[in-house]
């Protein structure tokens, strides 16, 4: 037998092309693309189906300690299981440094949390919260060289945020080492000031979470992040962009030739501020930061996805139960919004939502869908071409989609450990029916076939998009 597996008769799509081909898999990688391939030990008939690179979700939170009584619902098993059922084959969760903790110790802690659990492959982004001399001078450069080549920094949240001087120091290391910096851009003082004003007025229901984090606070921080990155001459990626004003800043920077990249997420296409205002405490289910905006801003986000402002579409899966200990009600059902854990689940629904409302609704081509959800995140984080495409030599990470399948999203069909989905009741067209990781069937028709721990840790290369403008061109590989 030439192949361990042949996926026959499907339509393959990559970030650039769509073509009818069989995919031959050997030793976990794509060995051949062609028509009439020789028999495989195993065969999958993909007639009438789409054969896409598995999704790469470049922004998820699994088993991340929160610093208070709240607890993330998903660990590395339930989180990766949910990802796989949604057609995703690689995830990038965070290893978050606690203030006072060594960055290396944080990484070791998250490796322990992951051990024996993932069903698909994973890499870590770092979160740098305490850029001491030791961290900047030794730990961060060493970790980047060990394959942790991207990290997030925060401009808000007291336990996480850096001041402008610290941001400059960290950006400088990213520049000299070639790492990708992800920026959470919201102005902390604006949010704190508004929150206190709202609390004094007794406006503490979940709805006011959105009011406390207006678009201008995102715009100001986005502009400042861009300016600091320009000063240092280093590319950055602004994550979870929610509003038209931030999009305007990003377009302005891109128009000036700066290497400013951007990510957005399903919550900014499918939810609005009204969803924070449900009956009683229901709105807490949609509390995330930045918050969802309105229909006009959703349209700007769609335009940014189709028009090239955004390079990546991630879930920002940050899973808290609604009921039960450690969840959204950790401080009671009447807790002020400030005391409600931030984050919503979405690792499993990310791809079906964008496929349905993007591709099937005619807003974007299938190639654009693959680019935003798989190829570009792999490129941005140094995993391409091993991940993010279907090409000879790439890992056989593949999602086979039935583009005609109609599914009504309800929490009961999902595989995370959260007790709700913000997308309850939305009907989508198109669903991943088989997910393969390195040639192994992980899920098929609703059944999990992989054992916990089979997912491999991926050290990441230096991402080409993180190269500063002023850097010399790299040597060609031939
Ligand atoms: N916002 C974040 O920045 N991270 C996780 C969840 C959230 O809402
Ligand atoms: Zn964030
Ligand atoms: Zn996040």
From TrEMBL:
Cofactor(s) annotated in UniProt: Zn(2+)
Protein name: D-hydantoinase (Dihydropyrimidinase)
Modification(s) after translation: Carbamylation allows a single lysine to coordinate two divalent metal cations.
N6-carboxylysine modified-residue sites: 152
Residues in the signal sequence: none
EC numbers on record: 3.5.2.2
GO molecular function: dihydropyrimidinase activity; metal ion binding
Record bears the keyword Hydrolase: yes
Ubl conjugation among keywords: no
Enzyme class of the recorded protein, top EC level: hydrolase
Gene Ontology CC terms: cytosol
NCBIfam families: D-hydantoinase, PRK13404.1
Residue span, Amidohydrolase-related domain: 50-442
UniProt source species: Azospirillum lipoferum (strain 4B)
Family as reported in the entry's similarity comment: Belongs to the metallo-dependent hydrolases superfamily. Hydantoinase/dihydropyrimidinase family.
Entries under Pfam families matching the protein: Amidohydro_1
PANTHER family linked to this entry: COLLAPSIN RESPONSE MEDIATOR PROTEIN, HYDRANTOINASE/DIHYDROPYRIMIDINASE FAMILY MEMBER
Gene3D superfamilies per UniProt: Metal-dependent hydrolases, Urease, subunit C, domain 1
Keywords, ordered alphabetically: Hydrolase, Metal-binding, Plasmid
């Amino acid at each position: 037998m030439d192949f361990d597996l042949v996926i026959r008769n499907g339509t393959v799509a990559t970030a650039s092309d769509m073509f009818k081909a069989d995919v031959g898999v050997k030793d976990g990688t794509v060995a051949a693309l062609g028509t009439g391939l020789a028999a495989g030990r195993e065969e999958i008939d993909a007639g009438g189906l789409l054969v896409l690179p598995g999704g790469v979700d470049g922004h998820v939170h699994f088993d991340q300690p929160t610093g208070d009584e709240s607890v993330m619902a998903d660990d590395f098993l339930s989180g990766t299981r949910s990802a796989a059922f949604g057609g995703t084959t690689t995830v990038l969760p965070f290893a978050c440094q606690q203030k006072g903790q060594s960055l290396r110790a944080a990484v070791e802690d998250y490796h322990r949390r992951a051990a024996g659990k993932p069903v698909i492959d994973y890499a870590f982004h770092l979160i740098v919260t305490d850029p001491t001399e030791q961290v900047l001078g030794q730990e961060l450069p060493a970790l980047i060289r060990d394959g942790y080549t991207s990290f997030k920094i925060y401009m808000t949240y007291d336990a996480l945020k850096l001041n402008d001087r610290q941001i400059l120091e960290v950006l400088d290391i990213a520049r000299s080492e070639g790492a990708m910096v992800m920026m959470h851009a919201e102005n902390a003082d604006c949010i704190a000031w508004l929150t206190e004003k709202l609390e004094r007025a007794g406006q503490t229901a979940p709805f006011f979470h959105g009011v406390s984090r207006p678009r201008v606070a995102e715009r100001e921080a986005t502009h400042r992040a861009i300016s600091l990155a320009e000063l240092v001459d280093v590319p950055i990626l602004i994550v979870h962009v929610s509003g038209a004003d931030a999009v305007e800043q990003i377009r302005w920077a891109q128009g000036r030739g700066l290497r400013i990249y951007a990510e957005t997420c399903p919550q900014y296409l499918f939810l609005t501020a009204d969803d924070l205002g449900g009956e009683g405490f229901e709105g807490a289910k949609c509390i995330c930061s930045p918050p969802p905006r309105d229909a006009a801003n959703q349209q700007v986000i769609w335009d940014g996805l189709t028009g090239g402002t955004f390079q990546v579409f991630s879930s920002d899966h940050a899973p808290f139960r609604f009921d039960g200990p450690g969840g959204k009600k950790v401080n009671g059902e009447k807790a002020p919004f400030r005391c409600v854990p931030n984050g919503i689940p979405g690792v499993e629904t990310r791809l079906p939502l964008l496929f349905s409302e993007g591709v099937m609704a005619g807003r974007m081509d299938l190639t654009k869908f693959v680019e935003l959800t798989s190829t570009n995140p792999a490129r941005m984080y140094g995993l391409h071409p091993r991940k993010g495409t279907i090409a000879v030599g790439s890992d056989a990470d593949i999602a086979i989609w039935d583009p005609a399948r109609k599914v009504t999203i309800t929490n009961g069909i999902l595989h995370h450990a959260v007790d709700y989905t913000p997308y309850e009741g939305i009907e989508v067209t198109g669903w991943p029916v088989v997910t393969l990781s390195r040639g192994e069937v992980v899920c098929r028709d609703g059944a999990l076939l992989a054992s916990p721990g089979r997912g491999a840790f991926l050290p990441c290369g230096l991402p080409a998009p993180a190269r500063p403008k002023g850097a010399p061109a790299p040597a060609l590989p031939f």
